[in-house]
User: Fold these one by one.
Assistant:
Number 1:
Amino acid sequence: MNTTRLSAVFLAAAISLAGCRGRQPAGEFQPITLDTTDVAGKVDYSGLAAVLKAGVGPGGKLLPEKLKANAKILEGQLMLMTVAGPKTRADLFKSEHSKLNYWYNARSAWSLRLMLTFGRERLEDESKVAKTGEGKTREPARWEIADDGVSIEEFSNRSFPIDGRSMTLSLMDSLIVEEFGFKAVIGAPCVSPRRAVIPTKPFEANDAAKLIDERFNEFIDDENRFVVDVASRRILVPPVLWQFAERLMADHQQKYRVTGANFTTALLPHVRLSAHRRLQDAVGYKCVGAPEPKVPLIVKRAED
């Protein structure tokens, strides 16, 4: 797939962002490992399909108890994706859409796995503090989503195996920008409330450009993620998109030979239909970078 003319500079921005996040104290982010012994390399997203069908509702709503119940199925899916990806099994990923499907599905699966991992570790830490010597803490049966989770830096820089190598969500974002352009990373799924929603079924598109366009438009049209505050006449731009603001405005001014274009105007050529109308209605509003909330975790319900 031919990336846009901006891909190179957007890649530099993404790598810079990843590099800043990567400079954390050694040992702060414990890597996740998987035992892929005897796992056959093939393309099969049926495990992810089962997890998403059970654990994700409309609009990316996460169903904690269902996700916990399907954790082993998710683990099996991640094992498959570790041994068979665009790098390890290039023969299975010859088209651009098959590669994009893989990375979007990998980001969905690992976002869920990281949420489960951080949640379990928090429970273990709390159990250690509360332990009174009466034996092991029983496994709780009821769960909920807690907004007071982990920072996006910690979440994005926890390393894990994928496609035969060690990676993080931050590095995965850089790869997506390099391979498919900046719009593709905006639509990349995650459990973070400032990223594109987790789908209810795996990505199996046969047109990469169409999928990127659809996901980008859905993101701009999502009032919970791309917030247009009419009262204050402001647009709260999520960090994943805000990092590209200056370059997008500069490119827009050069391409259309205009001066003083704001971010809203620069975005208009990249969207259509409802998302385009939403931006058009907000022309003149001040664009500001939205704060990055913590990534939610699955935790034990307080009443249990």
Number 2:
Amino acid sequence: MICLQLSFLIVKALMAGDFASCFASVPSADIEPEPIVVREGKFERAARMEAEERGTVAVSVLVVREVEASAEACAQACERWIRTYGWEPVAENGSWRIVGMDTTAPAFKETDGSGRHVWAFDVILTVVRSI
């Protein structure tokens, strides 16, 4: 799946910023009580040219913490890191290339079933895919 390739770049960026515990789906609180979860969106094509297509993919980043203030602070730090990350050297993965990136402001999402607090933001990637 294409988004898997793109969300992997988000995970790599978070790991480069020393934000550990990135997972593709929400793990059990017994296994990882305070994860950072990366969820992939689908590719939305905006234009198609002869050898490529351009569009966007939204990648959601969810920060799960026992203490709400900690979830908020970590989500803000993650978003700031992603927003200022130097994408150019790592912007390609397979047939996909990131040509633009924006983020939403982190916001409280929910308190999950185990009582942990979830703060989230989206990374909106403008991408080009070779076809």
